[in-house]
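Worked example

This section walks through a single chain of length 123. The input is the sequence exactly as stored; nothing has been trimmed or padded.
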Amino acid sequence: MGLQLFLSSGAFAIVIAVAYWLLARESAGTLLLGFLAFALSIMAAYMIVAEREADLWGDDAQADNSAAAGEVVGTYSIRSPLPIASAAALTCVGLGLVVSPTIAVMGVIAIFALGALFIVQSS
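Given that input, the structure is written out below as tokens.
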């Protein structure tokens, strides 16, 4: 069900991006719609490749809540500043694309550094 949603939404975003370009000839909106289609396609590819062999209790049609009792879903740090710092770095990238490429580059560097910190923190 989820895979069909991402595939159909990605195809719709591609159609809308092409139609927007043909009608408006405006590059920023077309780029954003193209990015939306790309992101949806990445999600669909992830679902096809990585989730193909996942054995999740929620995938079973007859599953109930007691079937998931005791299942370990991950460890989450509730006091980590990394999500807010990541949001600030993404904001710098977006703002930098509009205002100054220097800000965008600094935001990209911060995203890579924060990604490394996420990996270190999760292990």
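What to look for: The chain has two domains: 1-52, 80-123.
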